[in-house]
Each structure stands twice: as structure tokens, then as C-alpha cells.
UniProtKB/TrEMBL annotation:
<keyword id="KW-0119">Carbohydrate metabolism</keyword>
<feature type="domain" description="Dihydroxy-acid/6-phosphogluconate dehydratase N-terminal">
    <location>
        <begin position="71"/>
        <end position="379"/>
    </location>
</feature>
<keyword id="KW-0408">Iron</keyword>
<comment type="pathway">
    <text>Carbohydrate metabolism; Entner-Doudoroff pathway.</text>
</comment>
<comment type="similarity">
    <text>Belongs to the IlvD/Edd family.</text>
</comment>
<dbReference type="GO" id="GO:0009255">
    <property type="term" value="P:Entner-Doudoroff pathway through 6-phosphogluconate"/>
</dbReference>
<keyword id="KW-0456">Lyase</keyword>
<dbReference type="InterPro" id="IPR004786">
    <property type="entry name" value="6-phosphgluc_deHydtase"/>
</dbReference>
<feature type="domain" description="Dihydroxy-acid/6-phosphogluconate dehydratase C-terminal">
    <location>
        <begin position="410"/>
        <end position="602"/>
    </location>
</feature>
<dbReference type="InterPro" id="IPR020558">
    <property type="entry name" value="DiOHA_6PGluconate_deHydtase_CS"/>
</dbReference>
<dbReference type="GO" id="GO:0004456">
    <property type="term" value="F:phosphogluconate dehydratase activity"/>
</dbReference>
<keyword id="KW-0479">Metal-binding</keyword>
<keyword id="KW-0311">Gluconate utilization</keyword>
<dbReference type="GO" id="GO:0046872">
    <property type="term" value="F:metal ion binding"/>
</dbReference>
<dbReference type="GO" id="GO:0005829">
    <property type="term" value="C:cytosol"/>
</dbReference>
<keyword id="KW-0411">Iron-sulfur</keyword>
<dbReference type="Pfam" id="PF00920">
    <property type="entry name" value="ILVD_EDD_N"/>
</dbReference>
Length: 611
């Protein structure tokens, strides 16, 4: 496939490559050393090898006694409480069966934790959420440290799990790897009705039983939640980056097609392990691949959590991404999808309208993706990812994705987008550096100027709301919510309140060093503000009544206080004692103290030094 790349896309890619030249070379050197140092099973001591296959069948023991048979490690995020991960219960047995049919062996190398932001939202446990990503990365490394695997299958789907698995896998980038999704649950209560009930509850017009009924009708069976949050954004990213099979992201669990895709994924990974055409993970995750991931994020209006995760993933591979890279791509890449919370449709509707195959095809035709990348299918580039899987007489096959969207209220081509830009901006000014998701903002809310109300706890806003003190124009400044303060929890409790006030006609906005994920929705929200209050960022010097401008159009974040007055102010202090203990938070104190800035991925790992 010959392709003409958009010159701006190429220029951005070149800038990232030049900036990353030293660190990428260091990462590649590390991977070469690992490839050279990787022992063959035939050279491992008998004691080591006996421990490695002690629980295997007699046939597998014989097979693993030499180097002639591939051994696939499975790293799984299975638990049966989380709907998205419950389908993974049967995957190891299915993978082992598929591997055996192809003359290979598969073993569960280890498990990683999987927590749900939907369960911990607004609860104490949410303060462990972001750092669970780096714990997962370390757990992945522990699983693979046995050093007896020829390839790795990663089973994970939700918010921090997939980024964590990938971070860990990149430290073992000399091994081929494939990601295997579980798929979304079937559609439940329409998103418009769910949002309506949530807002009615916030206004006190319906009670808890009505709210719980609506939520249960939305989240009702195994599979990922169907809205386009971080979990489903993960799946889009793994597909557009070539780390899982084409068209596999949004196939429902428990279906014959899902089972056929899983079996084929095992076969593809085995092809990647062959000595004549190996495809290690490090060869797939390149500058071009990560640029493709950022394009996908913008074109679909994906979760703002990936403004953290992509930065960390890039650094793990020796690639230095910045928020300005995302902003520059956002000016180029149009918004092609309207999926809740940026629209009313869910991911099942997106899949039915043409899904990833149509999306990737349209982006490729417009020169907005790099075709010449390696994927888990090998060296063929992204052309295979313009196709969709189906069953033909019970056998897996692929066909071209639809040439036209089957629902242009959900999915559109580059030629007729929902917006000309990708809906994500990098805000800079005298308050620091932040990101804003603009894809769901109406034009009249793209810029807001209003006096500040300063808080250090999202719950305090509820009290002000109930007292009627918020019936006016204001910008809520919620500080001490960054990674070093309390682990950077998502602040979803703010969304219904701010949405109600905006609907009443007030000019409202949010400035925070915390997270909002994709739920910032229709409210202008400057999030992930860096430096955070805990690192003596300017946000710690904001006072009630200060006039702040959030400018999504001009990428501006500005406080109208003379510099000499502002800099002379003492920084606010927050009592975070209550955030240090309980619900396991005491175990995470070292992580909070060590976290990098949000702009560097809010990571525990100093990748540049480690390389």
C-alpha cells in the first residue's frame, strides 16, 4: 500500500523522533542486550526448569525440555467482580487448548490487580487508582521475570490495567506480545436516559432507588461498560497501534466470533515468535505507532486519562511525548465520533456503524495515520486494520469495512467530521500547564472568565451547591488533587453539579490538578494542572474572587492578578493527614512521594535514568 502522509503529521512525527533520539537509542540498546542475554531453556539449570514446568502435563514437560516448542506466558487481570474482566475466567484454558493444537505450550505467568474506577468513584479507594497502573507494570515484570517465555498474551481491558500491562511489557520488549480484549457488554439503558436520571438525582428530584435502577440497567452483564471512557479508549488504542487483532476491540464477550478471534490471536503470537520472522514488542511500539495512537485518541474523542498514560508509555519505550504534541495533532485531526459522553451512542453503536475498520480506513486515506508500521500481523502495515472479522461457515475471515458510515450521527469520515479539530487542547499561562477536552463543549462555553471559588475537596462543592451559594458565575478551583497530594483521583462528583449550573445559564468552569477522565463532558475543565499544588504550583496561590480565564479557543489559562502581588502570596496549605491512611493508602505513601508530574505521565519510574 502506497500512502501519502499529511506533511503536518510527518513534521510532528519528525519532531518527536528528533527529541527522542538519545533515549530511544538507549531503549533499543537495552532490548538488544535482553535479546542476547535471554537464556534458552536447554541451557537453564535442571532445577530451574523443573520448577518452571512442575505443574504441567507430561506432554508439556517433554515439549518444554527443549527449545523446539514455543512457551507462551499469560499475564491476566482476571477477577470475577469486575464485569469487564469476568470473561477472562475461561481464557487461559482456551489459550492453552489453542496453543496445544499448534504444537505450543501456554502457562499463566502471573496475575495483576484490576480495580474499577466505577466502583471507587468518589470513594477513598479512588486514591489508589492511578498508582495501580504502575503497580500493574511491576507485577507484569515479576510475572515475566521467570524468563522462560517466548511470547506473552496480555489479558486486560480497563482503565489503568492496559497501560500498566504495556508499561511492564515494554521492559520485556524483546518478547513478542499480543493484547486480547474481552469486549463490551450488550447495550443497556440508553445513555440519554442514564444521564437524565443522574442529573435528576443531583437535583433531588428522584431518590436512590431510581438512581440504582438506572445504573443497574446500564451496567448489567459481563463485558466493559459501553460508554467511551478509558476502558474502551484502551481497546481503540491497542487496535490502532497494532497490538491486538483487527476489529477485535468491540466484539461482545461470549460470542462465537469472540472465541474465534481469541484462537486466532494465539496463532498470530506464535507466528511472531518464529526465528525467521520474529516481531518483538519493541519493534511495534515506535514513534510512528505512538503518533497513530494519539491520532486515534483525538479522532474518537477518547479519555483524557491517556494524556497521562501515553506520556508514560512513550517514556517506557524511550520516546518523549508532550502535551504540545497532542495539541498540535488536535489542530490537524478532526473529530470523527460521537460516543457517550460526547454523544448519545455507545461503543456497540460505534461498532455497528463501521467501527475501527471504517475509522482507520478514513484516516489512512487522508494521510492522517502512518501505514508503514509493524503490527502483531507482521510487516504489512495498517492495511489489514481496515478490515473487519466475521464468521464464514464457522471459520474466521475478514472483509473490507463499510465504505460509508452506517450511522453518520455516530461515525463520520474525515471529509465530513463532527468538528474540524480533535477536541483536546494544551492550556498554558501564568497558572501553569493543563489539558482541556473540548470535543463536547458548545461554542459558547469554549472560553469562560469568572471569579474563583477555591476548594481542596470535591465533596465541599456539594455543600455549597445545596446551600444555593453557587447560583452565580464562577470557576471552581479544586487543588491538592495531584499525584503527589492524594494519588490524583478522578473528580466525577463535580460533573452533575457543574452541569446543572451551566444549564441554568451560569458561566462555570473547573481548574484542577486532579483528573476528570472523559467525564469532563460539557463543562470547560482545565485538568491535570502542572505543577500541582503539592509541588508549590501557582494553583496553591489562587484566592477566592480572583478572575480566571479558561480559553479553549486560544489555549490560554490565565489569572488576572499582577505578578508581583500573586508571587508574593503565601501558598495555601492543605491538611492531607486524612489521605495518608485507611483503605491501603499508607502502603502507597512512597508512590505519592515519588510521582512525576502529570505532564510526564504521573509515573513512579524515571525512565530516562533507567535506560
Amino acid at each position: 500500500m502506497t500512502q501519502k502522509i499529511h506533511p503536518t503529521l510527518q513534521a510532528i512525527t519528525n519532531r518527536i523522533a528528533e527529541r527522542s533520539k538519545t533515549t530511544r537509542a538507549a531503549y533499543r540498546a537495552k532490548i538488544r542486550r535482553a535479546q542476547q542475554d535471554k537464556p534458552k531453556r536447554s541451557t537453564i539449570s535442571c532445577g530451574n526448569l523443573a520448577h518452571a514446568f512442575a505443574a504441567c502435563s507430561a506432554g508439556d514437560k517433554t515439549a518444554l525440555s527443549s527449545d523446539t516448542v514455543a512457551n507462551l506466558g499469560i499475564v491476566t487481570a482476571y477477577n470475577d467482580m469486575l464485569s469487564a474482566h469476568a470473561p477472562y475466567s475461561d481464557y487461559p484454558a482456551e489459550i492453552k487448548k489453542a496453543a496445544a493444537a499448534l504444537g505450543a505450550v501456554a502457562q499463566v505467568a502471573g496475575g495483576v490487580p484490576a480495580m474499577c474506577d466505577g466502583i471507587t468513584q468518589g470513594q477513598t479507594g479512588m486514591e489508589l487508582s492511578l498508582f495501580s497502573r504502575d503497580v500493574i507494570a511491576m507485577a507484569t515484570a515479576v510475572a515475566l521475570s521467570h524468563n522462560v517465555f517466548d511470547g506473552v498474551i496480555h489479558l486486560g481491558i480497563c482503565d489503568k490495567i492496559v497501560p500498566g500491562l504495556l508499561l511492564g511489557a515494554l521492559s520485556f520488549g524483546h518478547l513478542p506480545a499480543i493484547f486480547m480484549p474481552a469486549g463490551p457488554m450488550p447495550s443497556g439503558l440508553p445513555n440519554a436516559r442514564k444521564a437524565e436520571v443522574r442529573q435528576l438525582f443531583a437535583e433531588g428530584k428522584v431518590g436512590r432507588p431510581e438512581l440504582l435502577k438506572a445504573e443497574s440497567q446500564s451496567y448489567h452483564s459481563p463485558g466493559t461498560c459501553t460508554f467511551y471512557g478509558t476502558a474502551n479508549t484502551n481497546q481503540m488504542l491497542m487496535e490502532i497501534m497494532g497490538l491486538q487483532l483487527p476489529g477485535s476491540s468491540f466484539v461482545n464477550p461470549g460470542t462465537p466470533l469472540r472465541a474465534a478471534l481469541n484462537t486466532h490471536a494465539v496463532a498470530r503470537l506464535l507466528r511472531c515468535t518464529t526465528e525467521n520472522s520474529p516481531t518483538p514488542l519493541a519493534d511495534i511500539v515506535t514513534v510512528k505507532t505512538l503518533v497513530n495512537g494519539m491520532v486515534g485518541l483525538l479522532a474518537t474523542g477518547g479519555s483524557t486519562n491517556h494524556t497521562l498514560h501515553l506520556m508514560a508509555i512513550g517514556r517506557a519505550a524511550g520516546i518523549r511525548l508532550t502535551w504540545q504534541d497532542l495539541a498540535a495533532l488536535s489542530d490537524l485531526v478532526p473529530l470523527l465520533c460521537r460516543i457517550y459522553p460526547n454523544g448519545l451512542a455507545d461503543v456497540n453503536h460505534f461498532q455497528a456503524a463501521g467501527g475501527m475498520g471504517f475509522l482507520i480506513s478514513s484516516l489512512l486515506e487522508s494521510g492522517l495515520l502512518h501505514h508503514d508500521v509493524k503490527t502483531v500481523l507482521g510487516d504489512g502495515g495498517l492495511s489489514a486494520y481496515t478490515k473487519e472479522p466475521f464468521l464464514e461457515d464457522g471459520r474466521l475471515a475478514w472483509r473490507d469495512a463499510p465504505e460509508n458510515s452506517l450511522d453518520d450521527m455516530v461515525l463520520r469520515p474525515v471529509t465530513t467530521p463532527f468538528r474540524a479539530d480533535g477536541g483536546l487542547q494544551h492550556l498554558t499561562g501564568n497558572l501553569g500547564s493543563a489539558v482541556i477536552k473540548t470535543s463536547a463543549l458548545k461554542d459558547k462555553h469554549m472560553t469562560v472568565t469568572a471569579p474563583a471559588i477555591t476548594l481542596s475537596d470535591q465533596n465541599d462543592l456539594q455543600g455549597l451547591f445545596e446551600s444555593g451559594a453557587l447560583n452565580r458565575d464562577f470557576i471552581a478551583v479544586i487543588r491538592f488533587q495531584g499525584p503527589r497530594a492524594n494519588g490524583m483521583p478522578e473528580l466525577h462528583k463535580l460533573t452533575p453539579i457543574l452541569g446543572i449550573l451551566q444549564d441554568k445559564g451560569y458561566q462555570v468552569g473547573l481548574v484542577t490538578d486532579g483528573r476528570m477522565s472523559g467525564a469532563s463532558g460539557k463543562i470547560p475543565a482545565a485538568i491535570h494542572l502542572t505543577p500541582e499544588a503539592m509541588a508549590d504550583g501557582p494553583i496553591a496561590r489562587i484566592e477566592d474572587g480572583d478572575i480566571i480565564t479558561i480559553g479553549g479557543r486560544n489555549s490560554r489559562l490565565h489569572i488576572e492578578v499582577p505578578e508581583e502581588i500573586f508571587s508574593a502570596r503565601p501558598a495555601a496549605a492543605a491538611n492531607l493527614t486524612q489521605n495518608n491512611t485507611g483503605m491501603g493508602r499508607e502502603l502507597f505513601s512512597m508512590l505519592r512521594n515519588s510521582a512525576s508530574s502529570a505532564e510526564q505521565g504521573a509515573s513512579l519510574f524515571t525512565w530516562d535514568e533507567d535506560l
